[in-house]
Each structure stands twice: as structure tokens, then as C-alpha cells.
Specification:
This protein is an alpha+beta fold. The protein has helices at residues 2-11, 15-26, 32-39, 43-55, 81-112, 125-133, 136-139, 154-157, 159-176, 188-200, 249-265, 271-276, 281-288, and strands at residues 59-63, 72-76, 119-124, 145-149, 180-185, 209-213, 222-227, 230-237, 240-247, 267-268. The chain contains 13 helices and ten strands.
Length: 289
């Protein structure tokens, strides 16, 4: 019985409607007076419930002569009507969905209008790329940084500027406690950069987790950082040099899902792996100069 009651309530009946309806199934001919006695529900309330059940198509209300309440007789319809009603509701909902889809563009036009609900900041040229690249760590220092990285070449911003930025971040990292995860394509260039930074400072890999994808089809020309609801893109590739900062929860969520997919497909870069590539000649030349 408990399952029956729960299902009928899910169908749309109230507790009292369920009680009355179940009683009407047990006898062919009932009166409101008798239903009130069987269920303990006041007779005036029983009349209201019977009218509701009738409108819902579950019972028939009949009168022997006239429509006085005392003469009303109650007869349940075949319970199969429940499924018929569900099919009708389903058809009505499908038809209503079609109508809603047709009016949504107009409603959303009034709701969104022309007001911007995302923030896009474009910074052209080398200064724009620098602005985005060198401020990502301090923009939201306590939010995780998830990056898809091309390992920006030093000749874009200058060897000294890049190294100072990394050193500054490493010196403040233990206090910031920021999670950093990066995915890179495994190329001769990324091998060179990783080998150089490890040679410069063994702490480079202590606070950042880098993985690689070894696939020639995985080509990354930017540093793309997802941090909170913000997407930061620094580009310095061939003729294109620019920076872009987008504050958009929707876009950030999409890129976060892309990052997580790539992260689970990638392989961790370890210090032993980098050492297996041999000594970094650039670092050695730098130390000799």
C-alpha cells in the first residue's frame, strides 16, 4: 500500500485524494456520506475531493434525480485510465515544449537584451602579450592554475625577464600554496625549456605538476591558462603577438573540461625523464658567459 500511495501522489494526487480514490476502487457504488465515514475525512471536504478527482478523469459522479449532494453517487473508472492520462500528459508536454522553443528567442531577447554578461579584454602587440603572461600568477594567487602551454620562447620577452618572473614566483610560491598543473606538447622546444629551467633551479618542479602529450597532432601556439572563471591567453607565434583575458564562467568551464580531458590523457614529466634527455647546452653556455 505504501508504494501505491507514493506512486499516486507522484501522479499528482494529494494524500486525501489518494485515500478517497482507493476507496472508490473497492466498491461499485458509493456516496460522499459513506466515503466520509470510511476515510474519516469531513463530508464537506469529501465533496471537494470528489470534484477534483472527477476533473482529473479518475471517477464519475452520477445523480439519480437532480444534482443535490445527498443524491450524488460515485463510481471509479477503470484504473487503466491512469496510464491513458499519462500518455495524454506526455503528448501535451511535447506539444508545449514545441511552443516554448518557439517563444524562447523572444523571451531571452528581452531577458539578455544587449547587456554584456562576460568581460573580454584584448591587449595587442608585444606589450599586450607581456601584460597577460606576466600577471597570471598575481591576478588570483590562491586559485588553481590549469594551463595548456607552448613554453613561450625567451626571445619574445627576453631571457632575463622570463627568468626573473619564474624566480619571483618560486620565491613566493610556498606562501601562495597555489596548485599549478600544465599540459605541454612534447617537442624539441619544450624539452629544451624544461631542461633549461630544471638546470637553473631544481625547485622549478617542486610546486608545479607538468604532463606531456607526445603526438604530432597536438600543436599548441599559445599559453592558455584557466583560473577560476577567467581565461588568459598569451600569444607570440610568428606574426601574431597579443594577449587576451576573458572573464566568462561558461567559457572557463568549457576550457576546464578540455584541460581535464587532456590531463588524463597525458604522461607526467619527471626530473629523471628530463635528465635522460642529457645536459642542457643553452644553460651550459649561459654559465660560461
Amino acid at each position: 500500500m505504501d508504494q501505491i500511495n507514493k506512486t499516486l501522489i507522484k501522479f499528482g494526487l494529494t494524500d486525501n485524494e489518494t485515500k478517497i480514490y482507493l476507496e472508490t476502487l473497492k466498491e461499485d457504488d458509493l456516496s460522499p456520506f459513506k466515503l466520509a465515514r470510511l476515510t474519516g475525512i469531513p463530508r464537506t471536504t469529501v465533496y471537494e475531493i470528489l470534484m477534483s478527482l472527477s476533473l482529473k478523469g479518475l471517477v464519475r459522479l452520477e445523480s439519480s434525480d437532480g444534482f443535490t449532494k445527498q443524491q450524488t453517487r460515485v463510481k471509479a473508472k477503470n484504473p487503466s485510465i491512469l496510464r491513458d492520462l499519462l500518455w495524454q500528459k506526455r503528448q501535451n508536454i511535447s506539444n508545449l515544449e514545441l511552443e516554448i522553443v518557439d517563444i524562447l528567442p523572444s523571451l531571452k531577447g528581452d531577458y539578455h537584451q544587449s547587456e554584456s554578461n562576460a568581460d573580454f579584454q584584448f591587449f595587442p602587440g608585444i606589450q599586450g602579450a607581456k601584460r597577460v603572461y606576466f600577471t597570471e600568477y598575481i591576478a588570483n594567487p590562491h586559485l588553481p592554475i590549469h594551463a595548456i602551454d607552448n613554453m613561450m620562447s625567451m626571445d619574445v620577452f627576453g631571457r632575463q625577464a622570463v627568468n626573473q618572473d619564474i624566480d619571483k614566483w618560486l620565491s613566493s610560491k610556498p606562501q601562495q600554496n597555489t596548485e599549478i598543473k600544465e599540459v605541454v606538447g612534447l617537442t624539441p622546444w619544450t624539452k629544451h625549456v624544461l631542461g633549461y629551467q630544471l638546470a637553473r633551479d631544481p625547485e622549478y618542479f617542486k610546486y608545479r605538476n607538468i604532463r606531456y602529450i607526445d603526438d604530432p597532432h597536438f600543436i599548441i601556439n599559445q599559453r592558455i591558462v584557466i583560473q577560476g572563471t577567467t581565461l588568459r591567453i598569451a600569444t607570440a607565434h610568428q606574426e601574431e603577438v597579443w594577449g587576451l583575458v576573458i572573464n566568462s564562467p561558461s567559457l572557463s568551464q568549457s576550457w576546464q573540461s578540455i584541460f581535464q580531458f587532456l590531463w588524463h590523457q597525458s604522461t607526467p614529466i619527471t626530473i629523471d625523464l628530463i635528465k635522460s634527455w642529457g645536459k642542457n647546452e643553452f644553460y651550459q653556455a649561459e654559465n660560461k658567459s
